[in-house]
Every structure is written in structure tokens, then in C-alpha cells.
Amino acid sequence: MEFEAWLTVAVLVAAIAAMARELAGPDVILMAGVITLAAAGVLTPAETFAGFANESMLTIGALLVLAAALRATGALEASFGRIFGRTRSERVGLLRMVFPIATVSAFLNNTTIVAMMTPVVIDWAHRNRMSPGRFLIPLSFATILGGVTTIIGTSTNLTVAGMMLQSGMKPMGFFELAPVGIPVCVAGLAYLVWVAPRLLPARREPTEDLGDARREYTVAMIVELRSPLANRSVEDAGLRHLPGLFLVEIDRAGRVITPVASDEVIFESDRLVFAGVVDTIVDLSRIRGLVPASDDERPAPSDPGRRLSEAVVSHSSPLVGRSIRDAGFRTVYDAAVIAVHRNGERVAGKIGDIVLRPGDTLLLQTAPGFARVHGNSPDFYLVSEIAGTENPRYDRAWVALGVLAALIATVTLEVLPISIAAFLAAGALVATRCISAAQARRSIEWSILISIAAALGIGSAMEKTGVAAAIASQLAGIVGDVGPLGALALVYFGTMLLTEVISNNAAAALM
Questions:
Q1: HSE (CB half, 13 Å, CA atoms) of 342?
Q2: In the prediction, which pLDDT does 211 show?
Q3: What pLDDT sits at residue 210?
Q4: What is the predicted pLDDT for the residue at 298?
Q5: In this structure, CATH architecture of domain 301-391
Q6: pLDDT in tens, 73-131
Q7: Distances from the Cα of 350 to the Cαs of 129, 225, 394, in angstroms?
């Protein structure tokens, strides 16, 4: 091999070693590698950046927007909550969980599904008095298994499909992987259901060990009109065994019900008072049909985009010595106070009547950008937004699901190429306000896309310098001894071992 070939091998080995030692992110390492090859003259500028115009890489970006829209509308959380149902058997619970999750994973990004469904699974496990830790690993594996059945099931599938097109091969069909993928998926899921309860420990949650050291709030929630929780008992509504939350009382037209029995029926406009920490209140805020009560005991604004924030009242704040009602939070700060924490204790009572003191920590429902606008205000010592607390757009859930169904139908019937269909779907979701343009931009995992594009560049260098041909020649010699199945096994296990030290997408592109 010539100098360019040896340099390519050196860059490849160095990149794999750097990723194995986690010296930097895969996107940084792979991009450094491809730029090094370009600087040495191995690749032209066009070849260096060709990966950024790769059809499959761009398709992955559009599909990430689709997954984010489904999350923003709460479409999957509401659906899966009903599908999972109630059970006291772990195996029945796993059976109800893994097959629907795998089905959805065939059409959505795995990482997004895990992020979206983790709080749902934890909440569901708590309500059924089971350990959430015994369901989270099966959740992750179910998404992986479901992804092997379609071309868009994982970003790795799309990466390989794109490289097939670049090599002049026939395009991969949407369900072309299904004849092999579905049996593998079903066998893997059956194994999970059978083995997981035997192998996975029932771990205690970190919140159980923290005890009273956590900052607790008392927060009031109002049952909305036409709420799905109305006319159901506390037990049936799933409010009895919420993780880290305790239903203290129900205020019904001035009549206080405490303690709250599990068979107590909930009605519209009931004021439910919970005690819990911020993380658990975040989960509470995502329950459909419940909205936080604010300083004047009206429901806090539930506009999409509003989220929870924490703020600490300063000594110089004009809020000191004034009740929350008199302070006019909605007018002055475009925010609603929903809970107060003081001197290590939660402050009970009606929010509007609480007189603020220096050092009080306020739990607020705020408009986007509250922390940016008031972060340096002398009214507060500290302002921080709580991630993942935006109000879901439940009214747009069916629109998002309809767009997903249209995408699947369009690609399956080969009406449009998958890349065009994915971008049309992403555009439709923004146009119908299922997700804002800003949310769409934030949903794109640029590190994944850069890793894929850079890995494709290194792959081009391997092909151009003859490194790929040399490796293929060595494999061909081995094939003569072990046969086609042996060669397939060699590629399979070689790729599998490579994914232990570098990302799946990078391994697929390099192999």
C-alpha cells in the first residue's frame, strides 16, 4: 500500500482508539480524522464534505423532528398509558410493555422513544406496585429489537441504506429487513419477558434514600372540566401510588377531605393538594386533566411552551413582606406561583395568602425565556428553568399521529422517496403547530449527524486509497475456508465488537 493508504489506516486506528478511551465525542474525533485526511491531500474538499449531503443522514434529521413532535404532543404517553393497563404480574407487565414499544420503535428513533417512555414506565410501575428498575432495561432492549424490522427503525439502518445507494446498489425497501428482523425481534422479546424477572434486581430508587434532605413543596392541582380523571376514584385515576408524591387533601367547594381514601371519587374543579419534590411534581404536571392552581386559586396558564421554573426571593426584592396575591406575579413576571419552600420545609396553605420572605424558593409556571429575562433581576438570587416540564399539546396529538401514519403509508407504497417524505412530514408538523420551529431545531441531535457524515468521509478515504479493497481481499481468502455463512458471521461479530468501542453509526459506516 502507498503512503495515503497507510495514513488512512493510521487515522482510522487512532480514531477508534480515541473513541474507545472517550477522549472526546465521536463527532469531534471522526471529524478531526476526516479533516486530517483532507489536509494531507487524501480527500478532496468535495469528498470530505460529501457525507453532509448524504440522503440518509438528512433523513435521520427529519425523523428526529417527527419523534420530537410526538413527544411534544404527548401522543405516545397517553396511548401507552392505556395499553399498559393494570397488573400485579411482572411478566404480564413486561408482555404488555415490550411488544407495543417494539412496534413503535420500528418507525421512530430509539433514543427518543426511551427518553419519552421512561417516565411513563416508571409511573406505570409505581401505580402497579412494581419496581421500575426491572422494566427500564427491557424498555431499552425492546426499542433496539423493534428497530431491526424496518429501514427507518434505527439511524444505523438508514446509514447503511444510504451507503448502498452511493455504491450503486438497489435501494433497500421499507420492510425489506422484516423477514429476518421480525423473527429476531419476537424471539428477543420473548426472551426478555421470560428472563428479565429472573436476572434483574429490584433496585431501590435514589429518591427513597434521600429522605427529608430533598426540597419538598406542597402544590395544588385543579381537575379540569371534562378531565379524564373526573368521576373516577383516586385509585382508578392512578393518583394513589404516584412516585414520591402524597395526596394530602381534596378541597371541594370549600369542603376539605383529608385523609384521602383510595375509593374517594374525584370531580371536576376539585382542588387536589399534593406534597412532593420537584422531580415528582414535574411528572404530576404532565398528567392529562390536571393543571396547577396559581396564586388566585385559578388554574395556571396551560399554553404550550410554558414550563416550571424555580426562583429564590432576594433580600432587596419588592416581593418581601407582600402576599403572593398582592404581588401580582402574572402581571409583573408573566408567571404563576404554584408552590413555596421555606427554611427546609414546605409551606402549606393557599398560595395567594402566603407572605413572602427573603430566601423563599418559589416554584413557578413561566413563559419561555423567563430565566433569560429575569436571571439577573435584583428581585431574585437565583432563577433556573426545570428541564422537560413544557406543557404537552394534547390537542395536536391526533395530528402528529396522522402525519406519522401518512409517512409510513407513503414510504411503504413507494409514492415518494423516504427522504422527501420525511421532510414533508417534518414540515407538516411545524405548519400544524405540533412543534415550533425552535423546538424542531433543538430536537436534531447534531452530534449523531456529524458522526455519520464524518464516518462516511473516512469510508470514502478507505475506498479511494485501496484500504477497503485490501481488507475485502483478506476476507475473501477467509471465506474460501469458512463459506458464505462463516463470512457473514465474521462480518456480524466483527461489527458487533467494533460497536463496543465506537458508536453504532460509525461502526456501520466504517464496515
A1: 13
A2: 46
A3: 45
A4: 55
A5: 2-Layer Sandwich (3.30)
A6: 877 776 776 777 777 788 888 888 899 899 988 887 777 788 778 877 877 787 777 87
A7: 32, 21, 29
Rounded (10°) CA dihedral 459, 462, 467, 469: 60
pTM as predicted? 0.72
Contact 445, 111 (CB under 8 A): yes
Spans of the chain below 70 pLDDT = 1, 78, 81, 202-215, 243, 279, 294-305, 387-389, 391, 475-476, 478-482, 501
- Rounded alpha-carbon distances, angstroms, from residue 311 to 219, 455, 487: 16, 44, 61
Q: What's the confidence (pLDDT) of residue 473?
A: 75
What span, in angstroms and rounded, lies between the C-alpha atoms of 223 and 260?
Answer: 16
3-state helix, strand, coil in the chain (%, to 5): 55, 15, 30
Cell 429575562 -> residue: 373
Can you tell me the distance from the alpha carbon of 196 to that of 201, in angstroms, rounded to the nearest whole number?
A: 9
Per the CB < 8 A criterion, the answer to whether 399 and 73 are in contact is yes
Q: Is 81 helix (H, G, I), strand (E, B) or coil?
A: helix
Residues 132-145: b if buried by 16+ CB within 10 A, e if exposed? bebbbebbbbbbbb
Asked whether 37 and 458 are in contact (CB, 8 A), the reply is yes
Residue 223 identity: V
The sheet with strand 255-257 has its strands ordered as 255-257, 245-252, 271-277, 216-223, 290-292
> Is 224 within 8 Å of 291 (Cβ atoms)?
yes
Extents of the domains making up the chain: 3-48+448-510, 59-203+395-446, 301-391
Report how far apart, in Å, the C-alpha atoms of 151 and of each of 41, 44, 59, 113 are: 35, 31, 11, 17
Note the pLDDT of residue 45.
92
Per DSSP, 293 falls in state B
> 76 and 485 in contact (C-beta within 8 Å)?
no
Asked if residue 234 lies in contact with residue 266, where contact means CB atoms within 8 angstroms, the answer is: yes
Give pLDDT, residue 501.
67
